[in-house]
Amino acid sequence: MSTTFHTITIDGLNLFYREAGDKANPTILLLHGFPTSSHMFRNLISQLADRFHLIAPDYPGFGNSSMPTVDEFDYTFDHLADVMERFTEALALKKYSLYVMDYGAPIGFRLAKKHPDRIEALIVQNGNAYEEGLRDFWEPLKAYWSDRSSENADKLRQFFTLDATKWQYTHGVRNPEAISPDNWNIDQPLLDRPGNNDIQLALFYSYRSNPPLYPQWQDYFRTYQPPTLIVWGKNDFIFPAEGAYPYKQDLNTVECHLLDTGHFALEEECEAIAGHIHRFLPAHITYSHTPS
Q: What homologous superfamily is domain 4-284 in, according to CATH?
């Protein structure tokens, strides 16, 4: 089933999104990470569209969505979650599963905490809701959280370079030659747009708001017990495998798969992840009709 490409206006912003699958099937909302966009889900969407309805938006400042400047838009995780909330409501998504990765986790868990009745299941790929795993990679960010100086900001600009973007895709993978250079050749020109570094620095600083919310998200897990599938690239330096294990403490219906790959696990393990989703979700959510 082919993917279609759309733009919807939310709060004066043009938000781009990919869509595929029968709308009568269960919906999965796919929330991307940094520094990419809904492009990261392109292959997964095609593998899941036979049994699910897939929606994958680009956040403001990412991908094909509007990129207002930091003076025009408050780039915080609270604000991105608010925009995504209005996006789901504009598309009349009453019930959906959440696939969250990297930045998608703090955005998605805000949605889940605010609207637990809308969430049918969680799929977590390399996205934290616990302090475990926030290790070496995070030290320069933590310094920036403590002191938002130009000196500390300059140390973070290395993460916006082509070498850093390529590293995110290739570090920890089994076979670097299996990773398409289209990934960084698509992401990097978007990072290089004038003003985008300021956007990313604002979000790096806003990330400090996420760890204090971890106890609230954990309370959501314990209280509402969403069925949760964890598919985690275990060689990820940014979100190492330590971040995957604690979900088991709070969730009764949880399945965890540590995959022998890196941060962008879908690049090397898309078929395996799709297989886990095809098996896990139908066992724990309700279809309104028999899937084709």
A: Alpha/Beta hydrolase fold, catalytic domain (3.40.50.1820)
